[in-house]
Amino acid sequence: MKSMMAAFAVVFAAAPALLGQTPVNTSLGDVQGPHPFNVRDLVMMDRVSDPQLSPDGRWAAFTVRRTDYAANRGITAIYVLDLDGTAAPVQVVDKAAQPRWAPDGHHLYYMAAADGVEQLWRVDLGGATGLDPAGHAAPTQVSRTPLDLNTFKLSPDGSHVLLSYEVDTDCPTLTCTAQRIAARAADKASGTTYDRLFVRHWDAWATGRRNQLYIAAIDASGQIPAEPTLLSKGIDGDVPSEPFGDESEFSFSPDGKTVYFGVRIAGTTEPWSTNFDVYRVPADGSSPPNDLTSANKAWDAYPVPAPDGKTLYYLSMKTPGFESDRFRIMAMDLSTGQSREIDPSWDRSAGSLTISLDGKTLYASVDDNGEHPIFAIDAATGKATRIVGDGTVSGYSLAHGRILFARDDLKHPSDLYTIDAAAISARAQQVTHFNADALANAKEGDWEFFTFKGWTGELVQGYVVKPVGYEPGKTYPVAFLIHGGPQGAWDNGWSYRWNPQTYAGQGFAVVAINFHGSTGYGQAFTNSISGDWGGKPLEDLKLGWAATLGKYPFLDGRRACALGASYGGYMTYWMAGVWNGPWKCLVDHDGVFDTRAMYYDTDELWFEERENGGTQYEHPENYEKFNPLDHVAQWRVPMLIVHSNQDFRIPINQGMGAFTALQRRGIPSEFLTFPDEDHWVLKPHNSVQWHDAVNAWLAKWTAKDAGRTASR
């Protein structure tokens, strides 16, 4: 289940009419001069991501997503920047994504549509005398396949490319799958019969097709054949995984003769299994894939071969059926098949694994005490050293002794930075400054981390954000945020969904607590929430609320609202029945209302079974232990519920059930739903509508004369 706000531009009625629609502005307009940060600033920010270094470490390729508000969508372009020069970044391709350098350092491959089908392209940025992104040649279409390309990866010498397509696995060609899709679309009968789960996953109904891994040679003219060679023969699983997998799940050996990939074999157990394995297959497809990690029944993935080709590094969990176990860095001797953990004592979960050219240092980004930095890990000893400090690193690239990374924090959206990979104490240099003008005018709230003694006296961390225009001696209403996951955290990072600066811009102080179950504080801390959803986390939230009121006198505890999404939404429903005293209002986004029904409604059953100690029919008492539905009789606080129709992780009937309970009990309540959104609200107009609705709800119930005085 792994997620606020804007100017009061829209005034809402206290109780929208049945089947009515919450009003929303249709134009953002230009806000001139200094003003408090709001959702209109948020949705129009340029989103910098996917940094990629050229092989010589001089050039940065990256993407920037801008918002076309009139078209209600984001448009992504590819930029190139000379890191050793003074010129501004140059846009080389529009409406494209996933830039990847060829080994020659002159060609840039990427993905873009051609006649409505996602294809592989490349652009030549210059000749032998040097790159000239501004004067680049016209792009060349590399692939002409009948199906959308999911993702790709170039071989070390640039002669071949790995490609992922969603296909019917019994089809011998991509064309066969395309023909079946066309025939299905033309069929006037719309019914679909399923004989196994998943029936639907995240936000899509199952089609029976699988992401499969292919390889193709790039010929002298820069083209690949329309029918590439299948490598994942006999694999009933997705490469990369659904719904958020990418090319980090497969890789080439240094000599390009072998391909490694991670996959979960589906069969009939896919919804309750996290048993991913790492496979090896010849790059020419001459024999079927071989499972290298079959002995471990938990998650093995993200293979990274050492430069000498003798060792395969990968990430591995120990606990089957658990998606939030610690990802350990493993090293497999490819000659013997024996694996070892690099450092069993490093109590952090690694991600985004890469390796230095000499093979001596691994790099990984991890959650760490409210930050998400990069660590350098000695491949021989496992010693981990934090090399990039504050903020959240959302992507990075390593080449020629330099690291290029995208970093954001609670006051800044993502920009690009560089650092010398060998200079541990070196200061990062910022190399892009997107959104600088917008941020100069959009005033934000200052913030700080704090700690307090939580459950059983253990130290717990959170942060407080001051409202824009904060004045000492004054008090301010509070937005009390509850994070999702539940194995997640409120980090020092920027968000386009739950951004505390959108509250601060409306004059609210923000309190956010990383309760037991949060990531970045050690695996035992993360594990402690399983089987205790309404216990330790609630205790931490109570103690954290009391601690902040004692520490920060500008918090008006009599004018506070609690808000949460996903697990945070579950906790909001739980608090509505067992801890509603402090709150003037509640906001629940895509939360779990009935833990019993949730087991049968959701898509990924492994999560429910891990968190509740087994299936619902075998352990019904576990599912009832902290069920918000059982405490509806104690509900009293006005609540806004937001739940979208395409959310298959926590289906919409959970939100509708809670709204029914509120209405039947006569509690002031509203229900906002989006027919075209999933677990997140992503479209620009929907995001503005979401924020306006939430802001209006908070403003209504935290006004000084609103409702009865709540207890502190």
Low-confidence regions = 1-27, 708-712
N-C termini distance: 31 Å
The number of E-state strands comes to: 42
CATH class group of one domain:
Alpha Beta
Number of helices: 12
Major β-sheet, in short? 8 strands, mixed
Rg estimate, integer Å: 26 Å
Tell me, what's the shape?
globular
> Reading side by side through the largest sheet, how are the strands ordered?
35-36-38-37-39-40-41-42
Helix content range of the residues, please? Answer: 10-25%
CATH architecture descriptor of one domain: 3-Layer(aba) Sandwich
Structural class estimated from helices and strands: alpha+beta
**CATH fourth-tier homologous superfamily of one domain:** Alpha/Beta hydrolase fold, catalytic domain
Mean pLDDT: 93
DSSP strand content: 25-35%
Would you give the CATH topology of one domain? Rossmann fold
In words, what does this structure look like?
The chain is an alpha+beta fold. Among the domains are: 35-41 and 443-702, Rossmann fold (3-Layer(aba) Sandwich), CATH 3.40.50; 190-341, 6 Propeller (Neuraminidase). It is 16% helix and 32% strand. It is built from 12 helices and 42 strands. The strands form 11 sheets. The protein has an 8-stranded mixed β-sheet, sandwiched between helices. A hairpin with a 7-residue loop joins strand 4 (73-82) and strand 5 (90-94). It is globular and about 75 Å long.
